[in-house]
Amino acid sequence: MRLTDLRPLYERPGPWASVYADIGGDVEDVRAAIQLRARSAREQLLEQGADARTAQAVHDFIIDRPSPPGRRGLAVFAAGGEVVHSELLPEGPTDTTADWAPLPHVMPLLVQRGARIPHMVVAVDRAGADISVWTADPEGHEVLAGGREVEGSTDPITKVHPGGPGGWSQARFQRRAENTWDRNARAVAAEVAEVADRFGVELIMTAGDVRARRLLQEHLPQRWQEPLVDLETGGRAVGISPEHLDAARRAALAEYAARRRRASADRLSQELGRRALAVQGVGPVVNALSEGKVLTVLLEDHPESDTQLWIGPEPGQLALFSEDARLMGVDTPEHDRADAAMARALAATAADLVVLEGGEGPRPVDGIAALLRHA
Question: Is 215:241 a contact under the CB 8 Å cutoff?
Fold first, then answer.
């Protein structure tokens, strides 16, 4: 996943309040529970030395949020007396946590984001298609960002039955039907490509008529041929279950994300084996980040980790030792969580982050490795 949307966090000076709280509605007195969590966040921040205005801003923000049904989490980042960024999370934490530190503590947010993949669902038949684009809003909701219906020609749309009147007229009618399907597929493909480019989708899912899907694929530009997945349910016909289509969509997303993680892990193994464009271990990865050479960081999530780095005001100023930070031109190095410092560097350089799960390739040294842009 890319972290570039978090850059505004790093454009403001710290220190930062980073709070994770459950704001869901699974308890009887939801408002009272949320008030307790907001108070806990404020008290934790004040105990760690936060200024009263920032701690109160976080408290008020949590209380003022609408309570969604089910268990949902909220990530809040505040500095200078105001909330700068917040996102809803799929899962709420068991306990409210609050950190006061030089950098925002974004790793729990990134782990829950997973691979937030903008994608498109195209329900297609021989007359046209229904196009839906899914992405995430600034607060982390998965949202239907756009929808469009494409209706092609229906004259003719159905072939003559083989048992009907034959001869030359029947063959001509069948050719006309196939030509109509092809024209409609071209129109759908053009629309799909335009919408996919505009929204920057990474994955296109198709559902519906098998022949129409095959024609759509034939007419899509080459750049959209690979990120194409067929769903074995759904379509445009009356009575098709939207619930089944949505379940298939979510399953395809999960498989696509897992496939990308496996591909990154496989490439890491290959590059490490060649001792080429990859490094592993905290020290080598930190050095590569400070030099702006990292293409992708592969990281195991260890929220209990107390590994610290020395940092300066610039994203590339991170080091294992304060002396090294001073050599980078940092007059007064500060220390902060290693994952917070690395996240800032990744956001600044538009590098990717892959959060590894169990069984996805060999475990890297210290639970962290990086693929490099260049040696």
Answer: no
CA distance 276 to 369: 13
Per-residue pLDDT of the chain (375 residues; tens, 9 = 90+): 778 888 989 999 999 999 999 887 655 677 888 899 999 999 999 999 999 999 999 999 999 887 766 668 899 999 999 999 998 887 888 899 999 999 999 999 998 886 578 888 998 888 888 888 887 655 445 555 555 566 655 554 444 455 545 554 555 556 666 777 788 888 888 988 888 888 888 889 998 888 888 998 899 988 887 778 888 776 655 556 677 888 888 888 888 888 888 888 889 889 988 888 999 999 999 999 999 999 999 998 888 888 999 999 999 999 999 999 999 999 999 999 999 999 999 999 989 899 887 666 678 999 999 999 987
Contact 307, 319 (CB under 8 A): no
Do residues 123 and 129 lie in contact, with contact meaning Cβ atoms separated by under 8 Å? Answer: yes
State the CB neighbour count (10 A cutoff) for residue 173. 16
3-state class (DSSP) for residue 367: helix
Look up residue 331 and give its two tokens. Answer: 């007059």
Token pair, residue 141, equals 């909701």
Residues in a beta bridge with 203 = 119
Instruction: Write down all domains in the chain, each with its CATH number in brackets.
Output: 4-113 (3.30.960), 119-240 (3.30.420.60), 259-372 (3.30.1330.30)
pTM, two decimal places: 0.75
E strands of the chain, at which residues?
16-22, 73-79, 82-89, 97-101, 119-125, 128-136, 142-151, 203-208, 228-230, 278-280, 294-300, 308-311, 318-319, 334-337, 352-356, 368-372
Q: What amino acid occupies position 264? A: S
